[in-house]
Write a structure and sequence with these properties.
Elements (H helix, E strand, L loop, with lengths): L15 E6 L3 H11 L5 E6 L5 H8 L3 E5 L7 H9 L9 E5 L4 H9 L4 E4 L4 H53 L10 H18 L3 E8 L2 H8 L1 H18 L6 E6 L2 E7 L3 H18 L14 E8 L7 H17 L5 E3 L22
Length: 361
Amino acid sequence: MSKPAADPPDNGEEIYDILLVDDQPIIAEAIKRMLVTEPDMRFHYCQASDRALQLAHEIQPTVILQDLVMPDTDGMQLLAAYRNDAALSEVPVVILSTKEDPHDKSAAFAAGASDYLVKIPDRIELIARIRAHSRSYLSQKQRDELLQEIKIVHEQLKAVYAQLHQSHQELEKLSCMDGLTGISNRRHFDTYFSQEWLRALREKISTSLILVDIDYFKLYNDHYGHQAGDLCLQAIAQALADTLQRPGDLAARYGGEEFVVLLPYTDAKGAENIAKQLLDTVKKLAVAHAQSPIDAHVTISLGVATLTPDSSVAPSDLVQIADTALYQAKEQGRNRYVLADISLLPKAPRPKAKVKTRKPR
């Protein structure tokens, strides 16, 4: 049976639930009378040992007073059962025994008992120990609950951070992407080109760049419409990107119908091979172009340039000679590539020689 010792206080103080498990009603009555005047304590009694666990689950005691010797169950067995139960494993258990035996005490503490009293204990001592164990248990329980809440919040923050990180990466990706064609935009190309140029400068390796222009694209737009023109740009852009096999290579929209392909760690021969592949890939698309003066399908012209960076040249020089080569490809009839002439590089200005003049006599 379970009975409260007194009405609980209404001043916000903690309530301590004490469960006594003892087969002797006379012991239960004596302990109940000790606690009945304490407004912060509720007394619960279990005479049958086989109901102790069930009742403990129901009332969630702050302290269990456990008889050591019972007819059907050894008190040590019940103590072990409490400690093996996840919901009760931390509840303080005070062993009550008729004798103060050092061996029993040692065994009880080894099994997980929180305290050991000889019954019937002194009232003042019993109340003091119940309060001490209850307060300690409730404080620990609150700490555990707080830590669990902190852990949950931490996991939620981790999930939010991961989502924000993913969103940031997606935004970064979008900021680097051309909205129409889906490949890199001019901004990303400029940043990436600067990084790769510095790397090539440090390692003294060749870097190649190909400027690509769609032949007679204005005529295509005028004839098929801007929507078809957008689809054409998308198809060409994807074809250029798909042709590149190495992770470090980059295809980007340079502006309008012009694209750029950056090939780090690539010499002139390698760049020429890529240019041939780009021409062939676009040819295989077979995008009809009824207004083209040179072919029935959309074609491209390419300017190919290769440099090994040093202190005498800048990234803009590579772009400039590739642009000159592209212009030559157009002048020669389009639908082709032209390799840039390195001699077209602007010469670094030499310091002027000092001219000695004689003073008039």
